[in-house]
Amino acid sequence: MSDYHDDDACGHDHGDTAGRTGTSRRGLLLGGAGVGALALFPARVIAGTDAVDLAPVAVPTASTVGEDPRLLTLFDTKLPSASTDTLKGAWSSWPHRDMQWIDLRWSDPVTTSRIEVYWAVDGSEVILPRSARLLRWDGGKYVPVTLRTSPTLGKDMFDGFDFAPLSTDRLRLEVEPAAGKSAGVLRWRVLSAGALPSLAPAIAAGIDRSVVVGGKTYLSADARWVRRAPGDDLRWTKVSGPGNVSFADPAASDTLAGFSAPGDYVLRLTGNAGARNGASTLHVRAVAPPPAQRLDVVYTTPWSVDNPMWNARVKSLIVNWIPHCVAYCERTDLPTGQGGIDNFVEAAKALRGEPHGTHKGYVFSNAWIHQTVESMCLALMVDAAGDREIAQAQDTMRATLERWIPIILAAQESDGYLQTAFTLADRREWPRRWSPGQRANHEGYVAGYFLESAINHHTLTGGKDLRLYDAAKKLADCWVAHIGPGKQAWFDGHQEMEQALVRFGRFVNDVEGGRRGDAYVGLARFLLDSREGGSEYDQSHVPPVRQYEAVGHAVRAVYFYSGMADVAAETGDIDYQSAVMSLWDNMVNRKYYVTGGVGSGDTAEGFGVDYALKNDAYCESCSSCGLIFFQYKMSLAYHDARYADLLEETMYNALLGSVDITGKSFCYTNPLDGTERAKWHSCPCCVGNIPRTLLMAPTWAYAKATDALFVNLFIGSRVNVGKVAGTEVEMVQQTDYPWKEAVAITVNPAAPSRFAVHVRVPDRATSTLYTASPAVSGVKRLSVNGRSVPVVIENGYAVIHREWKAGDRISFDVPLAVQRIRPSDKIAETRGHEAFRYGPLVYAFESVDQASIDGHVAALPVATWQPDLLGGIVTLEGRWKDGAKLRAIPYYQRANRDGGPLRDFPIADGSVSYAPGGSLLAATAVVAEAPAQTARVWVRAAPS
Questions:
Q1: Do 517 and 505 form a contact (C-beta atoms < 8 A)?
Q2: Which of 20, 101, 148, 529 is the most exposed place for a label (fewest CB within 10 A)?
Q3: Burial class for 475, CB neighbours closer than 10 Å (0-12, 13-18, 19+)
Q4: Digit-coded pLDDT (tens) for 274-307
Q5: Measuring CA to CA, which residue among 681, 778, 762, 693 is closest to residue 313?
Q6: What is the pLDDT of residue 927?
């Protein structure tokens, strides 16, 4: 075992990692800190030898991720303290259980006689390998290297591979995991033998991104030399673009760049080693800033729904699913997924000084109580319209709220703090609130859901019942009193408090005036700004304004980005605007499923590398909820219909079918090639999140400005949108969309009033990852009160300016047509495949409808109304290439005709840590494995 030292100082602070949220086992895949934390690498001389580590000037590639910048963590200058020291990142073969490899490729041949590998382990899924071998490139293929001494495959050390000196420009490390497990590598060193070669520096310019004109983008490149000599320099230059680019320091790897005009730019970073040059480019899209004033929220208040698809969905949620959630939250006999209302009962006893029980379930189990409270409040705002089942369910919900609210409030501490896991904790294990050692304990996550539940309880009661509202202000004030500039820095391992504080702060301002809620918005900004020094898993690897790629745990990420979008809109901070646009673009155009879901599961319940979109996707239901919030915030900021197009896509596909049609089971994950439904889950974080998100349909459907109203969704309904141009306005939609094209919207202002109505003109081209044919967009036959009006498009909306009076009726048709979707060739998983869409709905082929789902589709299927199938749906009917009949159903209706027994919990494989690093974890990990492929979105495309 040997060590190295740097010829030069690194110049970057690695910092103290104590108390940070560690990388979860799946987070080993790509690295923790991210490429933004890497720096200049000088020569690294191995202590006790004359050898220099040649690996840093190679280009790494892995079988699992391709050529990904995070593989550069293999060359990090900070030595691991142990094989479990994964905070800075590592490579692992997870989830693969077979032989995998890492390649190093140099610009010219190098000579070496020894490599050293520091193995990564997590004690669970990633353990020491069963075997490993080294191969070299002989000019045409990889051939094994004959070793003089074999590796020990031990942990907590550099494991040596010794061999006769050889020259090559490529090395491959093949790793065979132990049976049923995966293997990982923290560091890989290649020791030089003989004279050092003259090699160009290895340059990685960084992540493609967007920037708002007038702002700056943070360039953070990686540059590595075999041995850097005087005169070996770096230089940033503009390669192309419509305007000027200014660099704060064009000779620095880390610097700022500004752009004078909107458009697409290419930047190059060039480095030299004597006469040898290395270079790398990145793409920057400069965009115009958003409007100075964001749109206003339309709060969900009592409303009615009248739409075939939504009627059935809303009824199943109110009559079956929410009561099911209540029942499970009140059970005390669950084998897993525990932690319901009983935790609040015990916490109240503890606060009164009475004997009490211990906390049950996950540390964040309060979340599904708060979500279910909010869901009940939203369900009670839906007009039963004479439906006895709905009315009876609502009566029961009112009684439940009257029973639950006093129990919840009795568990709130005297200063407003509320989390039963802390109140009931052993102080030796969890000594104080907001401790860096307890970042994984979800203090902000559960508090945020409480704040949000208070908003919809207030709107339900019209402000007549202030119990939850006042308690929420007390909780938010407690946080403001303890966290902030001059008090305490803090960030939570799981984001939610940030977007909740902005949402609640806006609501308080709207209810009370006087900017009473501004302190909550300011705290949200502070919590976001405090995120740094951690890992990609929880998006704390670099400050928010320097994040340009969607990484880590997908739910945490979309909640984070939603909160960032909120802060950007509230403050006008241009660096936040640039980061948010970059994150949105990276996610939508590189990491986005055709169903509107996100999170491939290649990392811990999270994002993989660009274009890693496997069909057995994770696409957790909570990530779809969070993504809807994020797209909505973008629509508020930019007044642009593209974000509503995406919101609709996620809602109608990834989320709408996460609860079955009867409302008696749900999907934790939403893969594209098979779905497993169950009654509950060991981590039931989605159970209340799904209905609360779907039942906020009025909020998603509308937004408003001082003198304008925006229509984003087409749902037959009657909604009071509040004041527009100083007048209360009711909007009544009549439509069977997405089954039929016709939409009629009646505008009912309380008094005649002049304002603009912006009607979304759907554009199905939502992501550059997918191309659909024939192209479908626009609206047809736009009229007001039966008279045709010109279609004037602004930012994807048809805009109608006029004085409106009660009864004025806007009519139009939304074109619905069957489309064939072809994926980008950059997505290896779906190359040579196709999918189908009708309107906003993506379709799935189920084996219950045909003998095989492995064939080619002969011709574009035909949309056919099936009134007796799944409550009435449009199917796609056609023929497979072999002549057999073909049928596809909307993806959201999948897995409703299995006929098999419904599981209480999904299949357990123990491979997910739902709260890595958290305290009081008394639940068994359960995750849905992809069942036999009974459904499929992507089918093989016929040869062209």
A1: yes
A2: 148
A3: buried
A4: 999 999 999 999 999 999 999 999 999 999 999 9
A5: 693
A6: 39
